[in-house]
Amino acid sequence: DAMVIQNPRYQVTQFGKPVTLSCSQTLNHNVMYWYQQKSSQAPKLLFHYYDKDFNNEADTPDNFQSRRPNTSFCFLDIRSPGLGDAAMYLCATSRDTSYEQYFGPGTRLTVT
Amino acid sequence: DQQVKQNSPSLSVQEGRISILNCDYTNSMFDYFLWYKKYPAEGPTFLISISSIKDKNEDGRFTVFLNKSAKHLSLHIVPSQPGDSAVYFCAASGSNFGNEKLTFGTGTRLTIIP
């Protein structure tokens, strides 16, 4: 059974057109993360929620926002996608102080 | 500044032999290390981890070795099987980094040759 679900798996958007990626989890984990991974690069943490507390990485562009309406769901909003935002976006969860993170399959974003 | 480095982008190993994947880190504050495995079109999955108080952790065919003085860890897979073909990511964290944030390496693509 899928534990961390990401929709859609593939998303195409136009330059400058807002896009939302979604993540849901059945693990009841209180921490949720969003990573950006470009080809042949390491996954890069954008931000994470510890319960309802939002934690933004210092180098995450303002163009990227996130919402977590409840424990199960977390959204990544890209307000004005640029060509450089084309990447795989990975959602992950963890429980409290556990280092182990559970990843979803990712959403591959293409910007035309 | 890449704090976790996997200098070999790819590695090919004969089935049944040992696969050794290497990882180096620069931040001496890291005290917990993990290996993730990633198949195409799937997210990374946790494989094995090690705390800095240990120098070895073993789980079946997988063993992780940590050399703190050299800031180096390695993942050994023996014997290697075709299903082990995947991209392997090394990750590091520590209690000083808040909420257990992970810093990942760029990955090594392992191919097991039948």
Radius of gyration of chain A equals 13 Å
Helix content of chain A: under 10%
Question: What does the average pLDDT of chain B come to?
Answer: 93
Q: What is the helix tally of chain B?
A: 0
Q: Low-confidence parts of chain B, pLDDT < 50 over ≥5 residues?
A: none
Number-wise, the strands of chain A total 11
Task: Tell me the structural class of chain A.
Answer: mainly beta
Molecular structure report:
The complex is a heterodimer of chains A (112) and B (114). Chain A is mainly beta and 112 residues long. Chain A contains no helices and eleven strands. Helices cover 0% and strands 52% of the residues of chain A. In chain A, the strands form two sheets. In chain A, strands 2, 4, 5, 6, 9, 10 and 11 form a seven-stranded mixed sheet that branches. Chain A has a four-stranded antiparallel sheet with strand order 1-3-8-7, with no helix packed on it. Chain A starts with a strand and ends with a strand. The mean pLDDT of chain A is 93. Chain B is 0% helix and 53% strand. Chain B contains no helices and eleven strands. Chain B has strands spanning 4-5, 10-14, 19-25, 32-38, 45-51, 56-59, 62-67, 72-77, 86-93, 103-104, 108-113. In chain B, strands 2, 4, 5, 9, 10 and 11 form a six-stranded mixed sheet that branches. Chain B has a five-stranded antiparallel sheet with strand order 1-3-8-7-6, with no helix packed on it. In chain B, strand 7 and strand 8 form a beta hairpin. The radius of gyration of chain B is 14 Å and the shape is globular. The model of chain B has no long low-confidence stretch (mean pLDDT 93). The chains are: A mainly beta (112), B mainly beta (114). Chain A binds chain B through residues 4, 6, 9, 31, 40-45, 48, 50, 55, 90, 92, 94, 97-106, and chain B through 2, 4, 9, 32, 34, 36, 41-46, 49, 89, 93, 98-107.
